[in-house]
Fold this sequence. Notes:
single chain; Chloramphenicol Acetyltransferase; 2 domains; 9 helices
Amino acid sequence: VKLCGLVQQVVGCTKVGILDSFFELGGTSIHAIRLSGLVRSQLGYQLPVKTIFESKTVQGFSLALELDHIPAIPVSEESDVLSFSEERMLFLSEYDDQASRAYHIPLAFTLHDGVDVDVLSKSLGWLMDRHEILKTGFNSELLQRKVLHKSLVELTEIRVLEDFLNAKFNLNTDVPVRAGYFEDTNKVKQLIFVFHHIAFDGWSMGVFLRELSLAYD
Length: 217
């Protein structure tokens, strides 16, 4: 019932049955990203965008969550030594691409006319510099965190959305977030973030978005 309600909220339908196809109801890639985020923030489970495309119906989504649900994991307290959950995610990122993608947290937002992409990119850079966890790498040999002293995330133009969403994070050398934008079929810019759950969760989302808005303003 809760999943049906979330699909209604995302797609804008008045009624959703458990066997209705998400995409026949009008769902798009952007809707799938938003549904994934709502399932995470409101239900506490991971429903990857890839699973939405494969399962298609609320019944399929529910079955996927029952068979292979991944509970939300709170961000660990700052420490050089990795927690057990961080070790697990780091291991999966190196040896199991499919399982690792389940820890990707995509967010999608519409950029209204007048938003300056360059200013937004600089605001993102300021925010990355402010929060050490967003510029942290994870050493798989020493099982320690390390701050990466290199250029941070840049807001890039997305060529292929699916590739952007599913691209693997190298947690040893890459920061655990990427950001990009593209124009949809209506020529409206869409802003996309992909975070790795090793550094980001539902609680972090509100803080991140609030501070990004303040930085841009």
